[in-house]
Amino acid sequence: MIGAQQQEASIGMEELFRQDSYLRTCEAVVTASSAEGIALDRTVFYPTGGGQPGDTGRLLCADGSRIEIVDTRKGPNPGDILHVPAEGSALPAIGTKVDAAIDWDRRHRLMRMHTCLHLLCSLIKGDVTGGQISDGKGRLDFNLPPETTLDKVALTEALNAVITSNHDVTPRWITDDELAARPELVRTMSVKPPSGHGKVRLLDIAGIDLQPCGGTHVRNTSEIGLVEIVKIESKGKMNKRVNIAFK
Fold first, then answer.
1. Whole-model pTM?
2. Whole-angstrom Cα distance, residue 171 to residue 179?
3. What are the structural domains of the chain?
């Protein structure tokens, strides 16, 4: 938690990564500062959530100093995003102007994998019980009947066929009421999309998949690149884990 003497809340923070996943830098002002996290009035850093890791990167100060950011997390209050500084970093004062810059190559790999997992979800007809996105690899767990068999080679071929078919990937919004009227859009069993704020963000992969998601994604499936299903595991009577990696 941010120290009491530094609790200027990040209410109204602009989440620029939701507006454009391809933004790499932005100018910002420090609104809270502690060893546990630095809050800004606006940011391009994505915080850990939805199976996607938080961004890493750096904050560049006007005096030429830089603060390495080793993780990005949601804070204790709604709307808070904390940029976690490397251990021992000199902390900026509240009101300091900084240039916030993400590690773009890492973020882009996470974007590619996140979008790829949506495609995988479209090919396997079962509810998602869990998932994780890592740098260069990812996994999804599916609730499937015990007799279900999944073939690594066939699934890899089907997934790469969709990837190379150049489907546009577009975020859009619907109201809470619209989502409630279409429960089939929610594929995850353990995590439900946030509601109660009036609208919910969807990821629309044209003709392939449509479901709630607040993560960062590529603009077209062709940007993902070729992948491989490296392992399929049984994780319980009705749970199959599909592991995937970039080729």
1. 0.90
2. 15
3. 6-102 (2.40.30.130), 107-246 (3.30.980.10)
